[in-house]
């Protein structure tokens, strides 16, 4: 049996326990927190995309956040995903080295609006998508990143196709056809990390849109190539030199429980450094610092190594900037994304920092992607802090109340408390067999 077929047989058999449904509702609330922040922080880019897409109109099928009318399901999936990734606050998975909910939730919600799906259908589709994304992307790493591909866009398209196929109630063969069709629609490069990172949300946006489209085609009986993942010209061949098949098997639990939540509006590769700097804030005086050595795994430097961010988009991919702010102020948040935060104190501290590649800070088998921060003082003494798992990782978890607090912070200035609690209630109501009511209709300008 082929790798692709075996995976799709597994996906078709997924069933949910209450703990799985509860985790999914937490992931959904977290998505809305990220979307509020992304809508505001990436506003200039969002407006340009809106100016291109919204005048096209189309069938009123699905809700789009911050809009007054419905749009075609594919467009709704794209735009909601775009908003969700604008501030780098959406969930992710370490082994997969990318983000899942930011494309899956918009894709599934958009198609569920069109189809009139039930709550159970929606949750089952999401679980299927998370499982697909994490298995496939993990199996392709680290080669996927090494070749310059963004797993969120690349594997995300396949995951959205599988999730939406499940929403159509397709069998294992139908899911396989959807994934196979999606393999030829995937895209997403890491070039945003070199310059102009505001465009990064295009990758999950296209994953959501193309995943919906692939499932629509599969539902009409269109078939994709066999062995679409492992074939000689298949997806794995295109994106990596080595396939780690052990990750395609899954685990004794649904992998959606292995996702991390983000407290800081920046790339996940910066988070251990931020946590370390916050811990060091009370231990050292900035004026006593001679040098700051940041020992971190090489991929982090590749993807978040911007030394001096020129704008708020680049702050999301700057280990040195985010760490300097956290060390100076004892915290890091949305306010620090403003470029005016590049004060003389921040700039001086950044000039004293050095990124040092350290492969011991990463261990995929143990779920570790950490950072060691060593501060050299003017008198020669050294103070260090090691963080291997930042707050929000499964090993250092947040609870539902933490995520709701995150929603409040991200939506500040955009929604009042009663609106947010109505949104949370609508997410909590995604249960049972009743018809799905899309919470996105609760999010307004």
General description of the model:
- The protein is of the alpha+beta class.
- It has 2 domains: 3-263 and 398-442, 2-methylcitrate dehydratase PrpD (Orthogonal Bundle); 268-387, 60s Ribosomal Protein L30, Chain: A.
- It is 48% helix and 7% strand.
- The chain has 18 helices and 6 strands.
- It has helices at residues 3-12, 18-41, 43-53, 73-84, 101-115, 119-140, 143-146, 151-167, 172-183, 202-219, 235-239, 271-280, 298-304, 312-315, 319-329, 344-351, 400-410, 417-428; strands at residues 289-296, 353-357, 362-363, 368-369, 371-377, 382-387.
- The strands form 2 sheets. A 4-stranded mixed beta sheet has the order 2-1-5-6.
- Strand 5 (371-377) and strand 6 (382-387) form a beta hairpin.
- The mean pLDDT is 96.
Poorly predicted regions: none
Specify the helix fraction band: 40-55%
Number of structural domains: 2
H/E series: HHHHHHHHHHHHEHHHHEEEEEHH
CATH topology of the largest domain: 2-methylcitrate dehydratase PrpD
Strand order of the largest sheet: 2-1-5-6
> Which architecture of the largest domain per CATH?
Orthogonal Bundle
Report the total helices: 18
Tell me, what is the CATH class of the largest domain? Mainly Alpha
Which secondary-structure class do the elements indicate?
alpha+beta
Could you give a short account of the major beta sheet?
Answer: 4 strands, mixed
CATH superfamily of the largest domain: 2-methylcitrate dehydratase PrpD
Query: Which range does the strand content fall in?
Result: 5-15%
Radius of gyration: 21 Å
List how many beta strands DSSP finds.
Answer: 6
* Nearest-integer average pLDDT: 96
Distance between the termini: 50 Å
Query: Shape from CA axes?
Result: globular
């Amino acid at each position: 049996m082929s790798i692709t077929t075996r995976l799709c047989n597994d996906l078709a058999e997924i069933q949910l326990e209450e703990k799985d449904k509860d985790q999914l509702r937490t992931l959904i609330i977290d998505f809305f927190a990220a979307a509020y922040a992304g809508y505001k922080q990436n506003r200039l880019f969002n407006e340009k995309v809106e100016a291109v897409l919204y005048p096209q109109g189309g069938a009123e099928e699905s809700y789009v956040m911050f809009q007054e009318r419905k749009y075609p399901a594919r467009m709704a999936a794209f735009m909601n995903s775009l908003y969700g990734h604008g501030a780098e606050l959406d969930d992710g998975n370490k082994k997969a080295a990318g983000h899942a909910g930011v494309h899956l939730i918009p894709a599934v919600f958009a198609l569920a609006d069109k189809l009139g799906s039930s709550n159970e259908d929606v949750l089952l589709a999401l679980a299927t998508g998370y499982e697909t994304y994490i298995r496939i992307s993990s199996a392709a790493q680290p080669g996927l990143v090494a070749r310059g591909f963004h797993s969120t866009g690349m594997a995300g398209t396949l995951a959205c196709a599988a999730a939406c196929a499940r929403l159509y109630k397709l069998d294992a063969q139908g899911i396989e056809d959807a994934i196979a069709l999606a393999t030829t629609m995937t895209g997403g490069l890491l070039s945003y990390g070199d310059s102009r990172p505001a465009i990064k949300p295009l990758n999950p946006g296209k994953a959501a849109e193309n995943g919906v489209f692939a499932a629509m085609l599969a539902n009409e009986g269109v078939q994709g190539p066999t062995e679409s993942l492992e074939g000689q010209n298949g997806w794995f061949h295109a994106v990596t030199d080595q396939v780690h098949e052990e990750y395609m098997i899954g685990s004794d639990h649904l992998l959606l429980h292995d996702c991390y939540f983000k407290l800081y509006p920046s790339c996940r590769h910066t988070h251990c450094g931020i946590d370390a700097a916050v811990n060091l804030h009370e231990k050292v005086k900035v004026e006593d610092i001679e040098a700051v050595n940041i020992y971190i795994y090489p991929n982090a430097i590749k993807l978040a190594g911007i030394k001096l961010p020129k704008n708020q988009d680049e702050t999301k991919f700057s280990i040195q900037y985010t760490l300097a702010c956290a060390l100076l102020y004892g915290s890091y948040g949305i306010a620090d994304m403003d470029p005016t935060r590049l004060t003389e104190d921040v700039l001086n501290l950044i000039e004293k920092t050095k990124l040092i590649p350290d492969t011991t800070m990463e261990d995929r088998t143990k779920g570790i992607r950490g950072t060691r921060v060593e501060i050299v003082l003017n008198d020669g003494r050294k103070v260090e802090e090691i963080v291997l798992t930042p707050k929000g990782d499964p090993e250092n978890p947040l609870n539902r109340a933490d995520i709701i607090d995150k929603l409040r912070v991200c939506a500040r200035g955009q929604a009042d408390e009663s609106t947010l609690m109505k949104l949370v209630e609508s997410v909590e109501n995604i249960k049972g067999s009743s018809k799905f009511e899309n919470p996105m209709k609760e999010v307004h300008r």
